[in-house]
Every structure is written in C-alpha cells, then in structure tokens.
C-alpha cells in the first residue's frame, strides 16, 4: 500500500539545553513513497521515525556526563509516542481488518 499517511510525533517535555525549561516540539513523519505492505517499507518507516526522534531530541553536551543517557531516553520516548500510529498504519497497509467480538447470547 502506498497511500501516504502522516505520523505526528510530539515530545511535550524535553529540557532545552540553553534554558533548562521544558519545551514543546513536534515533527511529522510521512509514509509517502513507502510500500508498507513489505518488510523493507516498514523498516524504512521505522528509520524515518528514528531520524525524526533524533531531530527532535537534538544532541547532548560533552560537558553533561548524563547527556548521552538523556538523549537515548528522549529518543525512546518519542518513538514510543509514535508507536500506536505507526502500528495502526502498518496494519492498514497489510490489509488487516480490526477484530470485532460479538456475543450471540
């Protein structure tokens, strides 16, 4: 399936290295040009999400000994925030219908 979708990513509370105040950041990941019905297409989407997370989180300071760990956590948080939308889009692309449960009682 090559219908383009957009996955909004939001990181609502990261600390800006300059101000130490929480900032709000957003990014959008496009699925344009990806065939999400294939493993390669899904991997490419995951890579786009990782790149967006890296762009949102920025880089760590060499002067901050906990900077790399914070950066890793930031990227993990962004990827987790995008996970539901990513999974839903991949299921749609694979043609998976939602599972409906009904009782005959």
TrEMBL record:
UniProt keyword annotations, A-Z: Signal
Signal sequence interval, chain numbering: 1-20
Species per Swiss-Prot/TrEMBL record: Sphingomonas changbaiensis NBRC 104936
Name of the protein in its database record: UrcA family protein
InterPro entries, alphabetized: UrcA_uranyl (IPR030972)
């Amino acid at each position: 399936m090559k219908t383009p979708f957009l996955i909004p990513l939001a990181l609502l509370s990261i600390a800006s290295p300059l101000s130490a105040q929480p900032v709000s950041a957003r990014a959008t990941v496009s699925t344009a040009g990806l065939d999400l019905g294939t493993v390669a297409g899904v991997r490419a989407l995951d890579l786009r999400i990782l790149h967006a997370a890296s762009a949102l989180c920025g880089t760590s300071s060499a002067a901050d000994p906990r900077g790399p760990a914070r950066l890793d956590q930031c990227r993990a948080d962004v990827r987790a925030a995008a996970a539901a939308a990513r999974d839903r889009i991949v299921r749609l692309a694979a043609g998976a219908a939602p599972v409906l449960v009904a009782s005959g009682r």
